[in-house]
Amino acid sequence: MAQEYASNKPQSFKNHVENIAIVGVAGQVGKYIVEELSKTGKHKITAITRTESTSKVPKGIEVKKVNYDDPDSLVEALRGQEVLIITMAVTAPPEQQTKLIEAAAAANVPWVIPNEWGYDGTNNQLGKDTLIGEAKVKSRAHIEQLGNSSWIAVACGFWYEYSLSFSADTYGFDFKNRAVTFFDDGNTRINTSTWPQCGRGVAGLLGLKVLPDDENDKTPNLTQFRSRFVHMSSFLVSQKDMLHSVMRVTGTKLEDWKITHEPSNKRYESALAELQRGNRMAFGRLLYARVFYPDGSGDFESSKGLQNGIMGLPKEDIDEYTKLALQMAEAKVGSEAH
C-alpha cells in the first residue's frame, strides 16, 4: 500500500481519530482505557454493550445496546465510528469477536484494536502452546480479508497487579501463607503492565495523527502501526524481582518466605494434562507457566523493543503496584471468607 499524506487529502479530511467505540467498557482493562481516553478531551467514546447488560458506564459515555444474534444491530451501533476497541475475557466465545469484526467492516470502521492484550502474537510457538494463538491469528487475518478495516494489536504482557494478586497459578505467589513457587530458578524476566499503563498506552496510540503531513514528516502516526503489534510495558521483571518488591512493601525478609521451585516445562505439561482431563481451571497455570519458559517468550522488549516513548508513557514505581496487588489479594481472601 502506497504511503498517503494528509497534505494530499481533501480540505475536509481530519488527521486524527475522534469517534471511538469500545466493547468491555466496564471490564478489567476497558475502564482504564475509557478513563485515559476521556482525559485527553479529543474523543467521543461509545460503549457497545449487550441489550441485557447492567454494567455501569462512566458519565459522558454514549451507550449503544446490541444483540450479538442480530448483525444489523451491531452494524448500526458502529456506524460513524473510526476505531473499534475490543476488550473481552480470554474465555469469551471466539464468534463474539468475529461478529464485531464483520460488523466493523460492514460499517466501514477504519481501525480495529482486536482482543489481544497479552504477548507478541507473531510468536507462533507461544500462541500454539498457550492454545489461544490460532484464534487470534484468524481474527487478525479476517480483518485483513474483509478489507474495510485495519488492525493494530496491543502487546502489553500480563497485567501486573492482577497476576501478582490472583493466586499461585499466575505469578506463583501465595500471600496468605507467605509462600512463592519460583518457575525454574525464578530469574526469567517477562514484560508485564499495569492496568493504568495499558489505558495510557491506548490513549497515546489513538492520540497520534492518522497520516504523516507530507513526505518530510517523520513524527509517529497510526498508519505506521497498520497490521502490526504495538509493544508497551510497565516492567521487565523476574519472580525474584517481584519478591524483592513484595519484601520492601511488607517489610519482610527472605527468611520469612517459604520458597519452592518447579521447572516451568513440567508445570506447563501437568497443567496441560489437567486441562485435557477436563479441568478448565488449569488453563491459567498453563498460560503463565509457558510464558515463563527461559526462551525469551515473555520478554518482547529485548527482541522487539517498546513503543512506550511514542505513546508518552511514564516510568512507573513497581512497589506502588505491588502494594495495590497485596490489597487486592487481601480483599479477595476477605470476600472468600464470607
Question: Can you put this structure into words, describing what you see?
Answer:
Helices cover 38% and strands 16% of the residues. By secondary structure, it is of the alpha/beta class. The strands form three sheets. Strands 3-2-1-4-5-6-11 form a seven-stranded parallel beta sheet, with helices on both faces. Strands 7-10-12 form a three-stranded mixed beta sheet. Strand 1 (19-23), helix 1 and strand 2 (44-50) form a beta-alpha-beta unit.
Supply database-style keywords.
338 residues; alpha/beta; 3-stranded mixed beta sheet; 12 helices
Please specify the SSE layout and strand pairing:
Elements: E1 19-23, H1 30-40, E2 44-50, E3 62-66, H2 71-78, E4 83-86, H3 94-106, E5 111-113, H4 124-129, H5 133-146, E6 150-155, E7 158-159, H6 160-166, E8 173-174, E9 179-183, E10 190-193, H7 195-206, E11 228-231, E12 235-237, H8 239-250, E13 258-262, H9 264-276, H10 283-291, H11 300-304, H12 318-336
Parallel strand pairs: 1-2, 1-4, 2-3, 4-5, 5-6, 6-11, 7-10, 9-13
Antiparallel strand pairs: 8-9, 10-12
Helix pairs in contact: 1-7, 2-3, 3-5, 6-12, 8-12, 9-10
Short description:
The chain is of the alpha/beta class. It has helices at residues 30-40, 71-78, 94-106, 124-129, 133-146, 160-166, 195-206, 239-250, 264-276, 283-291, 300-304, 318-336, and strands at 19-23, 44-50, 62-66, 83-86, 111-113, 150-155, 158-159, 173-174, 179-183, 190-193, 228-231, 235-237, 258-262.
